[in-house]
Specification:
The complex is a heterodimer of chains A (190) and B (519). By secondary structure, chain A is mainly α. Chain A contains six helices and no strands. Chain B has one domain. Classes of the chains: A mainly alpha (190), B mainly alpha (519).
C-alpha cells in the first residue's frame, strides 16, 4: 500500500534507498540559516534592551535593561558557537521518534501544506465558527499527510469539531464560537 | 503539621466520588494518549491543558496527576509493541521489551513493565510524601539570592545536559528566555519587545510555548519524515495466564527495587530527568545479570524491561519533589505542570505546603490512587491500547493539530494566540530538524521571569553588591552542586554514547535470527 507521496523537494527520490548520507551531503544551509536567525534575535534583544527606558531615581538597583542584555548576549554567543561548530563539521542530530522514518529526507512540501492548513484557523474560527474551522484543519492535515479517502477525513473532522464544541463549549463552558451555521441551535450557545 | 495526618486528609478529599472519577478520567486519557506513538508525557499534558480552564483547581490537578502517571505507563506499551526498526535504540525499554514481544513474550514484558511501574511509582510516591514537607520547611528560609542560585542551576543543567550538544541547548534556553522577556516589565510598567502589539502586553503564555513546541512542532517534524505504510503492531497472546510466570516474577522484583532506587534520586535533581535514570538502570541490570539472563540481554531479557521501567516511573515521581517544594521544573513535563498551577494563580514553591496544604495533599493522595487504577486498567485493557496504536497516522496527527489549535484559542479566545502558536511551532520544527533540544526553551520561558524577579530582589537587598549572590551557605552549596552535576552529567552522556556505539552491534546481529524463527 503505497500512498502517493508528495515529492520531497530537497532530496533524491530515485526509488532505491535514500540513505541518510545522501541527505546529509552538500553544505548545511538550513543549519546556518537557523543558527543565523537565532544570532540575529540575540542582536535584536541587545539592541532592543538599549531602548528600554530606565526610570530616573528608581529604588531598584538593577534596572529593566540588565536581564535583557544578559539574555541577548547568551543567545548571540551560543548561536555563534553553534555556527562555528557546524563550520568545523559538527552537525546537529535530528530527533528520533516512533513514527519517524530514519532514512527519509525532510519533506518540506508536507510541512508547508500543514502550515497552510493550520493558518486557516486564523480566519475561519471567527468567521465560520469552531466546528467548521476544525473540519477544514483536520481534513486538510489528514489529506496532506496521505489519507486516502478525503470524505472520511472530512466527516471525521466535522465530527471532531462538533464533539469538541459540545464538550468544551457547551459542557465545560469555554466560549468557542459556534459560527453562523450553527448559532441558531440552542445547545451550541453554551 | 504531621504529614501523615495531612496525607489522610488528602485521601479523604481524593476519595470523594467526583475526584475519584477525575482521577480515573486522568489515568485513562493519560494512558490512551501516552500509548499513541510520538506523543510523550510532555505533549500529553500540553494537549490536555485546556481541560484546566474550566475545572476547579483540585479537580484539575488530580486529572493532571493521572495524566502524568498514565502517560508514563502508556509509553512503555508503545515501545514494547510497536515494531519500528531503526529507532528503538534511543528508548531503553524498547531494547529488550520489543525483542521479548517479537519472541512471543510480549504479555510478560507488558506485565513486568506495569507491575514495575506500580511498585516504583508507589515507593517513589511514599518517598515524596515524607521528603517533600521537610524540604519545603527548609525552603521557606531561602532568600532571593538562594532562589536565583537554584534557578541558575536548573537553567544550566537543563540547557547543558539535554540534547546532543551544549551550545544548542543554550540557544534553546536563550530562545525561551527571550519569549519570557516579551511583555510588560513589572517595576517600571513599560512594555518590552512587544512591537507595539497590544495582545503581547500580557506576555506570551507558557501554554502557547509548550503546546507550540510539543504538539505543533512535533507534528510538523514527524510529518516531514513520516513513516508511511501500514502500522505494524506485534501481536500479544490473550489471557491473564500468559502475563507472568513465577520465574518471571523471581527475575523481576530485584530490578524493580534497584530501578526505583536509581530513578527517584535522579528525578529529584535537575540532571536530565528520566532519560538518564532509565539508561543507568539498564546498564546496571546488564552488568548484574548472570548466567542465562546475561546471554539473553540483547535478545529480550526481562530484567532489561523491569529495571528501566521502574526507574522511569520513580524518576517521574522524583521530579515532583523540586516541583512542589521549590517551584522548580526540571523537565519539560514539569514545566508544563507548573503552568497549569499558574493558570489558577497558585505558585508552586515552599509556601505551597503552608498555603495550599489541602490541595497538595489531595494531589499526593491521588498519585497513590492513580497508581492503583493504572495497574488495574493497564493489563486487562491491552487489547484496547493495541487498537489505539493502530490509528492511521494521518488522522492521528490531524487530531493533534486540532487540539493544539483548541489549546491556544481557548486561552483568551483570540486568534492572535493561534498565530503565536504557529510561529512557536515552526521554531520547534526547525529546532528538532537541526538537533536542538526543545525542553530548555520551555524551562527558560517559565523560569526566565522568575529569575529576573529574584535577581532584582537580591540586588535591592544588597544595594547592588554582586557578591551577595554567592554569600549564603545555601547558594554556595547550590553552585558547587551545579559544577558536580554538570561534570557528572557530561560523563554519563559520554558513557551512554559509548554504550550505544558498542552495544548496538550484537543486538542488531541477533535480530534477524529471532525474526526468522517467527516466520
Amino acid at each position: 500500500m503505497t500512498v502517493p507521496l508528495p515529492v520531497p523537494s530537497d532530496a533524491p527520490t530515485s526509488g532505491g534507498t535514500p540513505a541518510r548520507a545522501a541527505n546529509r551531503a552538500g553544505p548545511p544551509v538550513g543549519e546556518f540559516v537557523f543558527a543565523g536567525i537565532c544570532a540575529a534575535l540575540g542582536v535584536y534583544t541587545i539592541v532592543g534592551a538599549g531602548f528600554i527606558r530606565v526610570p530616573p531615581g528608581s529604588a531598584s538597583v538593577l534596572g529593566p535593561r540588565v536581564f535583557p542584555y544578559a539574555v541577548g548576549v547568551l543567545l548571540l554567543v551560543a548561536s555563534l558557537v553553534v555556527i562555528a561548530q557546524v563550520l568545523r563539521g559538527h552537525r546537529g542530530t535530528p530527533d528520533d521518534g516512533e513514527d519517524i522514518d530514519p532514512d527519509a529526507p525532510t519533506d518540506w512540501l508536507t510541512v508547508a501544506k500543514l502550515v497552510v492548513c493550520f493558518s486557516t484557523q486564523l480566519v475561519l474560527i471567527e468567521l465560520a465558527g469552531w466546528p467548521v474551522a476544525v473540519m477544514v484543519l483536520f481534513a486538510g492535515a489528514a489529506w496532506s499527510l496521505g489519507a486516502k479517502r478525503w470524505w472520511v477525513a472530512l466527516a471525521a473532522g466535522l465530527g471532531l469539531g462538533l464533539v469538541t464544541q459540545l464538550v468544551f463549549g457547551a459542557w465545560l463552558g469555554l466560549s468557542l464560537p459556534a459560527g453562523p451555521l450553527l448559532d441558531w441551535i440552542p445547545i451550541f450557545h453554551g | 503539621m504531621d504529614s501523615l495526618t495531612a496525607l489522610l486528609d488528602g485521601f479523604a478529599t481524593a476519595l470523594q466520588p467526583q475526584y475519584l472519577l477525575y482521577a480515573l478520567f486522568g489515568v485513562f486519557i493519560g494512558t490512551a494518549v501516552g500509548v499513541l506513538p510520538g506523543i510523550g508525557p510532555a505533549m500529553t499534558v500540553a494537549l490536555l491543558l485546556p481541560l484546566t480552564y474550566s475545572l476547579d483547581p483540585t479537580g484539575a490537578l488530580i486529572v493532571f496527576a493521572g495524566i502524568y502517571y498514565g502517560g508514563m505507563y502508556g509509553g512503555s506499551t508503545t515501545s514494547i509493541l510497536l515494531n519500528t526498526p531503526g529507532e528503538s535504540s534511543s528508548i531503553v525499554t524498547a531494547l529488550e521489551g520489543n525483542r521479548m514481544a517479537k519472541a512471543g513474550r510480549g504479555a510478560a514484558a507488558l506485565a513486568t513493565a506495569a507491575l514495575g511501574s506500580f511498585v516504583a511509582g508507589t515507593a517513589a510516591t511514599l518517598a515524596l510524601t515524607f521528603l517533600a514537607p521537610g524540604i519545603s520547611k527548609l525552603a521557606v528560609q531561602l532568600g532571593p539570592a538562594d532562589y536565583f542560585a537554584l534557578i541558575v542551576v536548573a537553567f544550566l543543567t537543563v540547557g547543558a545536559l539535554l540534547g546532543s550538544s551544549v551550545p544548542r541547548g543554550l540557544v534553546s534556553l536563550g530562545l525561551g528566555l527571550f519569549l519570557g522577556l516579551v511583555g510588560t516589565e513589572v517595576l517600571s510598567g513599560q512594555q518590552r519587545y512587544t512591537l507595539g502589539v497590544p495582545s503581547l502586553a500580557d506576555g506570551i503564555d507558557v501554554v502557547v510555548i509548550a503546546v507550540g513546541l510539543f504538539a505543533l512542532g512535533e507534528t510538523l517534524y514527524v510529518a516531514s519524515r513520516l513513516r508511511h505504510g501500514p502500522v505494524r503492531v506485534i501481536p500479544v497472546t490473550k489471557g491473564w495466564r500468559s502475563w507472568m510466570s513465577r520465574r518471571d516474577l523471581a527475575r523481576s522484583w530485584r530490578p524493580w527495587l534497584r530501578g526505583t532506587a536509581i530513578g527517584f534520586p535522579i528525578g529529584t535533581i535537575p540532571a536530565g530527568g528520566a532519560d538518564v535514570a532509565t539508561f543507568l538502570s539498564y546498564a546496571t541490570e546488564r552488568k548484574l545479570a548472570k548466567g542465562n539472563a546475561r546471554a539473553e540481554f540483547g535478545r529480550g531479557a526481562i530484567e532489561g524491561v523491569a529495571g528501566p521501567e521502574a526507574a522511569n516511573n520513580a524518576a517521574a515521581a522524583g521530579v515532583l519533589v523540586p516541583l512542589l517544594t521549590l517551584g522548580l521544573p526540571t523537565t519539560a513535563t514539569a514545566a508544563i505542570i507548573i503552568s497549569a498551577f499558574q493558570s489558577y494563580g497558585i505558585r508552586p514553591g515552599p509556601m505551597l505546603f503552608e498555603n495550599q496544604s489541602g490541595l497538595v495533599w489531595a494531589l499526593i493522595a491521588s498519585l497513590y490512587i492513580g497508581n492503583v487504577m493504572l495497574l488495574v486498567l493497564n493489563l486487562p485493557l491491552v487489547g484496547m491500547w493495541v487498537k489505539v496504536l493502530r490509528i492511521p497516522r494521518p488522522y492521528l496527527y490531524a487530531g493533534i493539530l486540532a487540539f493544539a489549535g483548541l489549546g491556544a484559542y481557548a486561552l483568551h479566545f483570540n486568534v492572535f494566540d493561534t498565530f503565536v502558536l504557529l510561529l512557536v511551532g515552526l521554531i520547534g520544527f526547525l529546532m528538532r530538524r537541526y538537533g536542538y533540544p526543545v525542553a530548555p526553551m520551555v524551562v527558560g520561558g517559565i523560569l526566565g521571569p522568575m529569575a529576573e524577579e529574584q535577581l532584582r530582589k537580591s540586588m535591592a537587598i544588597s544595594q547592588g553588591d554582586l557578591t551577595y549572590l554567592v554569600r549564603s551557605p545555601f547558594a554556595i552549596v547550590a553552585y558547587s552542586a551545579l559544577a558536580v552535576i554538570i561534570v557528572l552529567g557530561v560523563w554519563l552522556k559520554r558513557r551512554k554514547a559509548r554504550f550505544e556505539a558498542s552495544g548496538a552491534e550484537p543486538i542488531t546481529a541477533s535480530l534477524p535470527a529471532s525474526e526468522e524463527e517467527r516466520k
